[in-house]
């Protein structure tokens, strides 16, 4: 079956916000494949990482062009897209994609370029920091006043508005060590602020989400991959804390001798990160078992990319902790997890292409612009109580 060019343009300009989960996951994989991150590397891994990074840039640019065409060609789709509860949450995935793109500059760009890129990285960090904070405030304000969003229909996607701001900590952890002393300290403080706010907001949202599951049961089958979003906040917080601790400039002696301060900061960061990692692992187990229970009923949707991005952060956090503890066992677990993440990414990419060809997505009534009820109240038996028992 061939698609007419006009029909193809129409298809490619519908509900594209959720498509940013693709470059979001690709960018995360780029960071994971960096030789600076991997404990067991080989010749050519840097080249592979650069190729994946270029592919990520191409995908991201193409999606920005397509969604820009959509909003320019059909201006009414912009307010409708932002007001549709399910679709609007995925707007934040664009900023998550940008976070991995900016962070990867420190891995693949700065080592090959001049000091101008160090300055560019710093400028991009602060712009991203300010913009994503505004996004978090505006989106949660809208969430609070929107009559269409009810607690019984809550999904982990409600955490997405704070996620981009939280990843400012990851950007700081990745590039602060390359900055001059004064700028490095400012970036670390900003990253810690963002990471702390993002983590605590996530905890509040997930507490409400667990209450929703206790009262109404597990999410619908199509939404279960999104449960892995809960793995992300503690995992990215874990890796960001250690990364920013390692980037602390020893020449800065505000808290005392630089080397002593660095040692204390690294110990605190490692212990705290292990604490965070355990929470991430628990969320991972819950999400994995929940998805396995419904594996035969699951059909592809764009939230399948939640299998990749949060778990990339979980894998990086595992490797980072293993490196701090100098544990070869943990490092080998991280290396094996990396291989599994690459396989999983390729599998989901194939399923993504297949879904487009079979019209499971990018087709009328099949995308994230279609509302979906999540609540399924648990079945309870009503017990009749005699009036005497009531007394």
From TrEMBL:
CC annotations in GO: membrane
Ranges that cross the membrane: 51-69, 90-110, 125-145, 184-207, 228-248, 268-295, 302-323, 329-350
Predominant place of localization: membrane
Signal sequence interval, chain numbering: 1-18
Segments of skewed composition (Basic and acidic residues): 373-391
Keyword Transmembrane helix: yes
Keyword set, alphabetical order: Membrane, Signal, Transmembrane, Transmembrane helix
GO molecular function, one term: malate transmembrane transporter activity
Keyword Transmembrane helix: yes
Span list, region Disordered: 367-391
Record's bilayer topology term: Multi-pass membrane protein
Gene3D superfamilies the record matches: Voltage-dependent anion channel
UniProt-annotated location(s): Membrane
Highest rank taxon of the organism: Eukaryota
PANTHER family for the chain: MALIC ACID TRANSPORT PROTEIN (PTHR31162:SF0), MALIC ACID TRANSPORT PROTEIN-RELATED (PTHR31162)
Name of the molecule in the record: C4-dicarboxylate transporter/malic acid transport protein
Organism of origin: Penicillium chermesinum
């Amino acid at each position: 079956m061939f698609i007419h060019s006009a029909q193809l343009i129409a298809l490619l300009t519908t509900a594209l916000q959720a498509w940013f989960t693709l470059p979001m996951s690709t960018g995360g994989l780029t960071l994971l494949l960096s030789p600076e991150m991997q404990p067991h590397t080989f010749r050519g891994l840097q080249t592979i990482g650069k190729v994946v990074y270029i592919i990520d840039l191409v995908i991201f640019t193409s999606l920005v062009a397509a969604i820009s065409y959509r909003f320019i060609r059909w201006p009414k789709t912009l307010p409708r897209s932002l007001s549709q509860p399910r679709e609007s949450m995925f707007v934040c995935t664009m900023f998550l994609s940008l976070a991995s793109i900016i962070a990867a500059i420190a891995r693949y760009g700065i080592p090959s370029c001049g000091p101008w890129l160090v300055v560019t990285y710093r400028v991009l960090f602060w712009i991203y920091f300010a913009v994503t904070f505004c996004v978090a405030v505006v989106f949660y304000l809208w969430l609070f006043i929107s009559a269409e969003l009810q607690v019984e229909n809550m999904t982990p996607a409600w955490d997405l508005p704070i996620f981009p701001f939280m990843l400012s900590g990851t950007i700081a952890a990745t590039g602060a060590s390359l900055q001059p002393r004064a700028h490095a300290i400012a970036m670390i403080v900003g990253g810690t602020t963002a990471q702390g706010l993002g983590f605590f907001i996530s905890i509040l949202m997930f507490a409400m989400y667990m209450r929703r599951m206790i009262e109404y049961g597990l999410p619908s089958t199509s939404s279960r991959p999104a449960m892995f979003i809960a793995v992300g906040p503690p995992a990215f917080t874990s890796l960001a804390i250690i990364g920013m601790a390692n980037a602390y400039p020893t020449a800065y002696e505000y808290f005392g001798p630089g080397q002593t301060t660095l040692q204390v900061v690294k110990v605190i960061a490692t212990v705290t990160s292990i604490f965070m990692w355990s929470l991430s692992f628990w969320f991972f187990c819950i999400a994995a078992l929940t998805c396995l229970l419904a594996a035969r009923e699951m059909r592809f949707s764009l939230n399948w990319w939640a299998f990749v991005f949060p778990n990339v952060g979980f894998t990086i956090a595992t490797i980072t902790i293993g490196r701090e503890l100098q544990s070869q066992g943990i490092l080998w677990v991280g290396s094996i997890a990396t291989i599994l993440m690459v396989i999983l990414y390729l599998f989901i990419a194939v399923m993504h292409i297949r879904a487009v060809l079979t019209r499971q997505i990018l087709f009328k009534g099949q995308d994230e612009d279609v509302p979906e009820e999540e609540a399924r109240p648990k079945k309870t038996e009503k017990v009749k109580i005699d009036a005497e028992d009531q007394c």
